[in-house]
Design a protein that fits this description.
- The protein is an alpha/beta fold.
- The protein folds into four domains: 108 residues, Rossmann fold (3-Layer(aba) Sandwich); 64 residues; 167 residues, Rossmann fold (3-Layer(aba) Sandwich), CATH 3.40.50.300; 52 residues, 2-Layer Sandwich (Alpha-Beta Plaits), CATH 3.30.70.240.
- 42% of the residues lie in helices and 20% in strands.
- The chain has 14 helices and 14 strands.
- The protein has a six-stranded mixed beta sheet, with helices on both faces. It has a five-stranded mixed beta sheet with strand order 1-3-2-4-5.
């Protein structure tokens, strides 16, 4: 099979300006077509690693044993020596065998995409739940990779009568890891139960829930702050937000619950999707998903990011939820960029969470989408049920009311799920 490859020394571009980076990486990839490694470079930057070179081999499938072919391995070894790299970063998840083969052939540490993302998550996890989720994902990822940790004792495990401490230690480590995984899952189930109680309280109030979803670093937390006036921490780095945050948003007298959670990524490791299932459930239960996209990215990257988010939404059971595409970071676009963004996504809204541009239109669109799903009701609420009237105001926002001798005559639009709670106050429909 004909193969093409490219190598680039990017030391001058990506290395820190002051001093020398402790970790200097060469990025590698094996793929059927040329694909930019910008995302991997950004992951490494977030992890504090300088990118000093890259090498891509174009092939239909990575080599099952060494990821790269033998010729490319030699080329990679030469390149790593030229740029004085001390780590190799792979754009895919490596099998344990591929990882061991690469490290043996190159004499350097090798990390794959999943390990880099897990490291970033471990750095950014702040809450107790986030730390539990990250530890669970790390243990599940490392469980299959424990075999290589005891190679100095391999000769003791050859056959009958030769079973020795090397094999015993591996089994012990795996058993401890599995026990720890069980403990973490049990603790997370408890956290999930507590989150479920809070979610039930929110659902009981029947307040409409809107979730922010999108690629990591698309500006979701900044948008949450701009819409709700909150002060959630934001930073220009990948996966800055791991813990779900919910804030109240008022539009036309109606209160909405706006939730922000962990961002998505191309080829997001399944360990993270599983570990953060309870967190991502906030998105899967939302009445409306705001799919936030970085409009300042190239059109190719926008399409790739949008596709990656759609894949994860399907994985967490939110694929059928109503959604609205929000093109954020309009303040970074020139006139040509604005025209391309609007023409390329006719149903999307162009906004800037920094300057406030388009936020009013976004709120109006949210309200329009929600109102279109409401059911009309006509009620007669006794004056003694003042609490019910307050609840109606909270659910419906603006409503048409008339005081009568029998009680308050109310015409309103309510969420379909909450109509049954007021059924005993419903007036009979007039025949046509």
């Amino acid at each position: 099979m004909a193969q093409r490859s490219r190598a680039r020394n990017s030391q001058a571009q990506d290395a820190p300006r002051e001093g020398r980076a402790r970790q200097r990486a060469v990025c590698i990839a094996s793929q059927p077509a040329t694909e930019d490694l910008a995302e991997l470079r950004e992951l490494l930057r977030t992890a504090g690693v300088a990118v000093v070179g890259e090498l891509v081999q174009q092939r239909e499938q990575p080599h099952p044993n060494s990821y790269l072919g033998s010729g490319k391995l030699e080329e990679l070894k030469t390149l790593a020596a030229e740029v004085d790299a001390n780590v190799i970063a792979c754009d895919d998840e490596l099998s344990p065998r591929q990882e061991r083969t690469l490290e043996s052939a190159l004499g350097l540490a090798v990390v794959d995409r999943t390990a880099i993302i897990l490291d970033i998550f471990a750095r950014h996890a702040g809450s107790a739940e986030g730390k539990l989720q990250v530890e669970l994902a790390q243990l599940e990822y490392n469980l299959a990779r424990m075999r290589g940790l005891w190679t100095h004792l391999e000769r003791l495990g050859g056959g009958i009568g030769t079973r020795g401490p090397g094999e015993t230690q591996i089994e012990t480590d795996r058993r401890l890891a599995r026990n720890r995984i069980s403990v973490l899952r049990r603790r997370l189930r408890g956290v999930h139960a507590s989150r479920g109680v809070m979610r039930s309280e929110r659902e009981r109030s029947a307040l409409p829930q809107v979730a922010l979803a999108g690629y990591t670093n698309a500006g979701k937390s900044t948008l949450l702050n701009a819409l709700t006036g909150s002060d959630v921490s934001v930073a220009d780095r990948l996966f800055h937000t791991l813990d779900p945050t919910t804030r109240a948003l008022e539009i036309n007298g109606r209160t909405y619950l706006l939730s922000d959670t962990v961002g998505f990524l191309r080829k997001l490791p399944h360990q993270l999707v599983d570990a953060f299932a309870a967190t991502l459930e906030e998105t899967s239960r939302a009445a409306l998903i705001l799919h936030v996209v970085d409009a300042s990215a190239s059109e190719e990257n926008v399409e790739a990011m949008t596709g990656a988010v759609e894949v994860v939404l399907d994985e967490i059971g939110a694929g059928e939820r109503p959604r609205l595409l929000v093109l954020n970071k309009a303040d970074l676009l020139d006139e040509l960029g604005r025209t391309r963004a609007v023409n390329g996504h006719r149903d999307a809204l162009l906004v800037s969470a920094v300057s406030g541009e388009g936020l009013e239109a976004l709120c109006e669109r949210i309200d329009e989408i929600f109102v279109s799903s409401l059911a009309p009701v006509e009620l007669l609420v006794p004056y003694a049920d003042g609490a019910r009237l307050a609840e109606l105001h909270e659910l419906a926002g603006e409503l048409d009311r008339e005081d009568t001798p029998e009680g308050v005559h109310v015409r309103a639009l309510l969420p379909a799920a909450s109509v049954g709670r007021f059924e005993r106050f419903a007036l009979p429909r007039k025949s046509a």
